Amino acid sequence: MFKNWLKIAFINYKKNWLSTCINLFGLTIGLTGFILILMHWNDEESYEKWNPKKDDIYSFQAYFDAQKGYGSTISYPMAEEALKRIPEISHFALQNGAGYSTKMIANGKSVFQDGGFQVSEEFFTFFPFKLISGSYTNALKNESSIALSDKAAKNLFGRTNVAGESLTINSKNYVVTAVYQLPKENTQINPDYVALAYDQIKNDKDQWGNFNYGCFFMLKKGADPRLVEEKFKNEVLKLRAQLGAKEAGISVKEYQDKYGPNDVLLTPLDKMKLHAKASWFGAPDFKTILILFIFSVLIVVLSAINFINLKTAQASQRAKEVGVRKAIGSTKASLIFQFLLETFLICLAAFILALGLTELVLPSFNKYLGKELKMTDPMIFIYSFGMMALVSLIAGIIPALYLSNFKAIETLKGNFARSKHGSWLRNGILTLQLIISSFFIIGGLIVNSQVKYMMNKDLGYNGKQIFLLFFNENSPKPWLKYERLKTEMKKIQGVDEISYGEAVPGLNSSSTSNMDYMDKSIQGQHGSMDFNYLQFIGAKLKKGRWLDPNLASDTMTNVLVNEAFVKKMGWTDDEAMKEYIKPGFDYQKYHIVGIVKDFNVRGLQEKIDPVVFFHYKETQWKRFQVFNIQVKVDPNDIDGTVSRLKKYWETNVEPGYPVESFFLDKKFAESYEKYQKQKTLFTVLNAMVLTVALLGLFALSSLMIEQKLKTVVIRKTLGASDSQLIVGLTKQFLIITLVAVLVSIPISYYFMNEWLKDFAFRIDMPWFPYVLSLVLLLILTFVVVSIKAYQATKVNLVKYLKYE
Predict the structure, then answer these.
(1) Residue 730 domain-assigned?
(2) How many structural domains are present in the chain?
(3) Are 149 and 243 in the same domain?
(4) Containing domain of residue 555, as a range?
(5) pLDDT tens digits, residue range 652-667?
(6) What pTM was estimated for this model as a whole?
């Protein structure tokens, strides 16, 4: 019997070769997309799985009511008090920075090494990398201790067994206490060298307000993280508020409402990459992956819809087959199994083709994501095979039940093609398919409009021809270095102007703190700078004046703020010019002497933060934060000037260090990359969806028009024109398309409006994508269906009537 079923299946595949090819094509495309996105998701979820202690380690995040958001940092006393007061916590590890770069010298050899971490001493308790040399016991006990990865050890010493060896960084001697091997598995914790953040921790021991550290807590076995969060809130946050309130002379509640944190969240280490609310290693982006996954499933659904539509449309061709088999004793169950087998064979073939296609497109997909995904995880095959089996069941069961329910007497007596049975099912499923197609068209047009808007928006500054060069992190007295270079680099041919600014557009590097006025406090971004920086980047002054190098007060107590600062404080411009603020980075009050028009620093997806601009000498510790010099180059000789700048830098400024540099406008443009990729992705998805949908529509209309050929012949014999016949055959499909687009409009509006909410600067919801979707789908439907309808009008009347 099974062999017989296979023969029948292949006979039908051959007989309906067009629909078979369309089903194979659609399912292959859909399953390929599903496999690729599944690989991406699986890769993102795999971070930190290597860590044997991952089940006990949690990433710390603090919630601030005033900012209505989470932060990923903590102050040292908060972490220390949590360990003392909460018995469920066994250890904590702090991270003060990642991605540090420095020049190491050992045995006369000099090597530039990047990827450095500055941490607290219990770092290796949390991250037990494979030990190559030395010991993790007391590995970070003092300020002269350093641990190297095997890669860094080979770079500097040419071997890995270097525990006990000495090296020098910026004239300071270090002893290698351990050499380790980084995991091959995915991890965000991947330091090439690890040093104790000794000076920072020493300075922050009693500073409850210095949120300078990313933090991990290790809980005791069986401890409930939700209980720890509650204890942290009631014990540590309350203590911080009590101490701060006493110093500020206000109530505990007022202090906590103004400064926070107001709540905490602990996220498991292996969930940090995708599911943390905020992360030291960059904002998690689970939402994008989820959207991609849903889209990939929708394409598979479209393919399944094609399958169902085509199978039900072919019902008339198999009605007599079903009638004969039922008449000779076949059961309904055996018929269902037969039709499910036919569906499974098509889906299995599509699955095999999809695996091959995935291998072909994987290099391009990796380039798009910046990854190195490989088809080595057996779970990918299991999940994708499960999806294929589910599609087989869903796409096969509806036509199987429909065909198996035919009554033998009815199908043997007459022409089933004339029956109305099944039309509601085909029309309903076709409508769903067109709803999905319309959604993709509308979504793609809106994404395109938003990205275009971002690319063309006036940013409030001009970053063209501004070339930024970084100082290395260990530069002593960097403000003096900047002042010296400012004088010397002006002599380089092609250099027009030089300045320095902390709030660099596109860099997201400046720090923030509370900005207080009377009983009000806001969070503001620091903008330490040289006197001419705002004019240098083309920012505009709204009210007041710029900082003046000839006024001593402009390096002592005077500042400028942006419009967002004034708005957040609830002032008018005139009120702001009369006020003094007390920033959290200093103990004195500052007078506002000017208001700068808002300009974008962090990218158009984020709101413009309140910023306070001040000279780098105004606050003593800020002069140690001068980390760049910015040069405006001659637009007529950009390449030559950049070449001369780099040569000067490598020779006279930081020999042995690579030149870290970029143009401001190009750096800011990188903030668009994610959305440009989304635009590209929507374009590709649109092409895939429309191709699958239109091929399915063509095959379905071909079958349905074939069933109406006798009607066409009779009407043509009675004098109907070709145009009348074409309109009659296409009208039903055009009505279905119109209904589908109208249904898709509110659905598309809701989801695209939710997507646009992620942007602080966004387009108003446009109307043209909805109209264009309707017009485009009506035209495509008419073109696709009318091709077959036109062919139907050219049928040989005499020959057809003779044989019918």
Answers:
(1) yes
(2) 3
(3) yes
(4) 466-671
(5) 888 878 888 888 888 7
(6) 0.82
